[in-house]
């Protein structure tokens, strides 16, 4: 085996109502639209936490500051159970939509404060809402002492950015193929078993590739549907039974990458 152990990161973006409002501000007036976002922290996230406990797995939760402020109990619970709580914007607005770097920095700082207030710890990782960075984002992350970004799609495994000033910002690359959103929110929807097969294929093949990692992006409001959560249960068992994979938090994989 090339990578022994092979790193696997289970990550969950807890968009909550902020995701729905960020997509369309008029949704703030629509109770049903808001309830779809609220399904994440209210109904699905407690079950995701129980599933992770069952497998003794630690994960990373990317949380908008708005979610940390408005669902602070369950976000604090994520940290209490040993998971990483990382940054996912404040209002779940993509960085590229800010008119300048100053506006983007204020949004980042507000998100840091909210997570720090809910968990007691400053976030060290950042994933942008909708994976839409601006040309300023990586420099801002580096200036705010973030350890890693989890946004770019140009590699199969972690690497260190070459930024001005010689900083050591790590990239933990992502892919739409390893994200529950396109499969379950686009039409036509895929069955949980089809997605399980796709993700197993990726896991099996990535394990054979040098310096690769499996970084799965999920959303409690999407993967937390009962049939899909049962699939995630089977997938984690499959990963565990492979014998050569290690489930890591993103901050752990980032520090392994830097050394
Ligand atoms: Zn999101």
What's a concise summary of this model?
The chain is α/β, with parallel strands linked by helices and 259 residues long. It is built from eleven helices and nine strands.
Task: Describe the model.
The strands form two sheets. Strands 1, 2, 3, 8 and 9 form a five-stranded parallel β-sheet that branches. A four-stranded mixed β-sheet has the order 4-5-7-6, covered by helices on one side. It starts with 5 loop residues before the first strand and ends with a helix. The protein has eleven helices and nine strands. It is globular, with a radius of gyration of 17 Å. The model has no long low-confidence stretch (mean pLDDT 95). The chain has one domain: TIM Barrel, CATH 3.20.20. With 259 residues, the chain is an alpha/beta fold. The structure holds zinc ion.
What characteristics describe this protein?
globular; TIM Barrel; 259 residues; alpha/beta; four-stranded mixed beta sheet; 11 helices; single chain; binds zinc ion; five-stranded parallel beta sheet
Characterize the main sheet: 5 strands, parallel
Number of strands: 9
Relative strand content:
5-15%
Bound molecules: zinc ion
Number of domains: 1
| Alpha carbon gyration radius | 17 Å
Average pLDDT = 95
CATH superfamily: Glycoside hydrolase/deacetylase
Termini Cα gap = 21 Å
CATH topology: TIM Barrel
Kindly state the percentage of residues in helix: 40-55%
Q: Quick one: overall form?
A: globular
CATH class: Alpha Beta
Label the CATH architecture: Alpha-Beta Barrel
Low-pLDDT ranges: none
Structural class: alpha/beta
Helices and strands, in N-to-C order?
A: EHHEHHEHEHEEEHHEHHEH
Number of helices: 11
